[in-house]
TrEMBL record:
Keyword Signal in record: yes
Protein name per Swiss-Prot or TrEMBL: DUF538 domain-containing protein
UniProt xrefs under InterPro entries: At5g01610-like (IPR036758), DUF538 (IPR007493)
UniProt lineage: Eukaryota, Viridiplantae, Streptophyta, Embryophyta, Tracheophyta
Extent of the signal sequence: 1-25
Coiled-coil segments: none
UniProtKB keywords: Signal
Amino acid sequence: MGLGLFSKTILCFTLVFVASSQCFASPDDDDEKPSAYEVLSSYNFPIGILPKGVLDYQLDSSTGKFSAFLNGSCSFSLEGSYQLKYKPTIKGNISKGKLGSLEGVSVKLFFMWIDIVEVSRSGDNLEFSVGITGAGFPIDNFEECPQCGCGLNCDGLQVSKIRTNPFVSSN
């Protein structure tokens, strides 16, 4: 990737939450593929389930297998309640309203890091499963992409509030 394209890509990911149409490839540009955030939207997911800075992704649309690539590990806290950690590569299977067999995303519960294995959309809520339990959150919590290191509270400015539900439901 040349420096000009790299700079354009970084600008895209920085501005993606304001949906600037200048960041997206035009339909006649065969060299450009949709961003990872655009692909999430096409599967009925909000862009904010991925942090800012996804460099690239692979998607086999016939099977739904995907990989998303970050420039290193990424962690942040949301509202001081949840600590999330993303590995440099996130993998799984995607279909309309469901991300399954997830690898590379974990949440800190009490004193342990537990893998998030599935995310599903149910109406205006997202359900996150860690295997034996899960939690639901309103979809509007994920309109903006968190930033590695500071989440949604960067530069001391509160970007948005996360309405939380404890991990209490059983699967």
